[in-house]
Amino acid sequence: MATRSEAGPTAYVNARLLDPKSGLDAPGALYADRGVIVDLGRRLFTEGVPEGVAIVDCGGACLAPGLVDMRVQLGEPGNEHKETIETASRAAAAGGVTSMVALPNTDPVVDDVAGIEFIARRAREEKLVKVYGYGAVTRGLEGRELVEMGLLSEYGALGFTDGLQAVANAQVMRRALSYSRSVGTVILQHPEEPALATGVMNAGELATRLGLAGSHTLSEVMMIERDLRLVEMTGGRYHVANVTCAEAVEVIRRAKARGLPVTCSTAPHYFTLNETAVGDYRTFAKVAPPLRGEADRAAVTAAVADGTIDAIASDHAPHDQDTKRQPFAMASPGIVGLESLLPLSLALVHAGRMTLLELLRRLTDGPAGILRGRADLEPGLPCDLVVFDPDRPATVDPDRFRSKSKNSPFENHMVQGVVLRTVVDGRTIYSEAGGGSAA
Amino acid sequence: MQDFEAIARPGYAHRHLLGIEGLTPAEIETLLDLAADYAAQDAGAHQRSPLLSGHTVINLFFETSTRTRTSFELAAKRLSADVINMSVTWSSIKKGETLLDTAMTLNAMHPDVLIVRHPESGAVKLLSEKVNGAVINAGDGSHEHPTQALLDALTIRRRRGRLAGLTVAICGDILHSRVARSNIHLLTTMGARVRVIAPPTLMPGGIERLGVESFMDMREGLRDCDIVMMLRLQTERMQGSYVPSIREYFRFYGLDREKLAMAKPDALIMHPGPMNRGVEIDSSVADDIDRSLIQEQVEMGVAVRMACLHALVAGTRTPVRAEG
């Protein structure tokens, strides 16, 4: 991918280098020039940094490939009052995300070449993080006719998904998976069987108490099981977004063991919260699929730790007050997540569930691999980095989010981990020391 | 969550009445005793209590209702309050205003009490967070209808002298019923045994966790019951086919003399109204003056709502009477 030339030679010294792909976890330095990683290692710059090279002293903090967020909603085009590509990019930068992939459920829907080009052009104008897009699987997200997958892929679509809707029709899904092979792309499914998932929260005792319609985990498992049959038949690459329950994890684990081309991801709220977060009708904790029971939350945590779940995405879904301050059933589902992605995920490391390197794999190399991209520190790659302190305590404060929308259930949530600096193509686009604004 | 402060204090110490869940036995007792007092006053004596004189009560109904709204209106007027009725047909909701906009607008008029009914579960609580006055939930979605449960309890207590130890069967559309939920919370809190009877498609998941026994065979569920509470089959809520047909429903879940024979010989019959005769209840049972409490329920409704208004408004200034 093209790099921007304004970034001169820079030395990132005094860092803990972390690269999940190569397994590197060691103190050292990284050297970048013209937006590209040139060299890195333990012994680099031990004799001092040459003249004319800018120095960034990481102060012993972690330096890793910039995070890849494979599931965000941008709001633009169509819902600019909730989020724009600019505000989402600023939020991403503050969250240590250097590449993000937008869902196509905008207005208009990204189902043609013009839609994909629009995202690319707007991202170039903002010059912040790298913004990519998925194409819709079906025209207008209507679930009937396939989009021009080949052309959209040529113009940069990284995969195809109908966003917050499942491709419900089995014949359409079969053809999408089948056709995707000729393009070499991936189909990303929202795992809810729509005829069954008519509820607004997880089914069970709490839904009964609150008098709200529940959606059973079965509607998620059924959708995935059906799709896996089609994957087996067609050989198409398949990704399940937002895995939320124990049975879904188990089904995917077995499919992987059988060698099917299947990957999956989840979002921090599914391993951080359970259904009790919606008690008292808290619409900020309303998501689709819904937050599940404690056993399911624990199973998702375990699956992230053992690698059954390949990637963690923020599932960033900006909503304004009007769509959230509503009676529960009428409120829009979704949580803004770009700025809390890393600190919430780091809780898994602090709880001893996985190593820091493994967690970073779910946030960098994992999602990049699914989308056939790169997110590691190999010399020659674009210099997209995040520098963070994994231990510093902090409190999530949605009012300070750069995102235009503040719909987070994590207000006052105690976390450990602060992003200090975000670098894209060698340019620092966020620095905590600089008052949090782009340098 | 247990409100330990409320347990320690006599009377009813909450700002709103949003539901029965979470109320203590003592609080429920307080409201029932107060209601029993009002019920004992002769309605034919044409006297008003000056208790709420100068207070404004707004009936805010986002869902059509005749009996509940009228009952609240009458209760407020008997306490000398100024009553305003707002219903959805002319409210600004239809013009796209959100629920909270409506709440803020009404709040600016400084009502002392807002009585709210809304078709969505949780909507009344949401509204209560934005207003300064007291809020009474007159029914929210499938969640709660606390004054209905209180009037049912008062009706039972007048006939049987107690709630504890009685076996009460609640039959019908448990899934969508706010009356069922409020009654389950109230009756189990007061020590009654509660059974729920419904076809599996109208029985919500995890209902046993609310402390009740569930039955899909109505005869079995009615065996040796003291009280049979029928629910309205809410046809307006039926989006899919929860039951194949009305006549099939009546055959298996309608209360007729034959099924009623399974209950105790002196079992009493209740219904929150309005009744669908021939759907969930046979006319000969509904109109049996020895067994049916349906008219008495309506009568107790006014007394219970007077008690709730009393506890919420006057309770903040003068001590609520602990004994009836």
Fold and architecture overview:
- The complex is a heterodimer of chains A (439) and B (324).
- Chain A has 439 residues and is α/β, with parallel strands linked by helices.
- Chain A folds into two domains: 94 residues, Roll (Urease, subunit C, domain 1), CATH 2.30.40; 306 residues, TIM Barrel.
- Chain A contains 13 helices and 18 strands.
- In chain A, the strands form four sheets. In chain A, strands 1, 2, 3, 4, 5, 16, 17 and 18 form an eight-stranded mixed β-sheet that branches. Chain A has a five-stranded parallel β-sheet with strand order 9-10-13-14-15.
- Chain B is an alpha/beta fold and 324 residues long.
- Helices cover 36% and strands 14% of the residues of chain B.
- Chain B has twelve helices and nine strands.
- Chain B has a five-stranded parallel β-sheet.
- In chain B, helix 2 packs across helix 6 and helix 2 packs across helix 12.
- The two termini of chain B are 28 Å apart.
- The relative contact order of chain B is 0.16.
- Chains A and B meet through helix 5 of A and helix 5 of B.
Number of helices of chain A: 13
Distance between the termini of chain B: 28 Å
- SS strand fraction of chain A: 15-25%
Number of helices of chain B: 12
Shape of chain A: globular
Structural class of chain B: alpha/beta
- CATH-scheme architecture of the largest domain in chain A: Alpha-Beta Barrel
Tell me the domain tally of chain A. 2
The radius of gyration of chain B is: 19 Å
Mean pLDDT over the full residue set of chain B = 89
Main β sheet profile of chain B = 5 strands, parallel
At CATH level 3, the topology of the largest domain in chain A is TIM Barrel
* Poorly predicted ranges of chain A: 1-5
Structural class of chain A: alpha/beta
Total DSSP E strands of chain B = 9
Q: How is the largest sheet of chain B built, in terms of strand order?
A: 7-6-5-8-9
**What proportion of the residues of chain B form beta strands (DSSP E)?**
5-15%
The CATH superfamily name of the largest domain in chain A is: Metal-dependent hydrolases
Give the low-pLDDT segments of chain B: 316-324
Overall mean pLDDT of chain A: 94
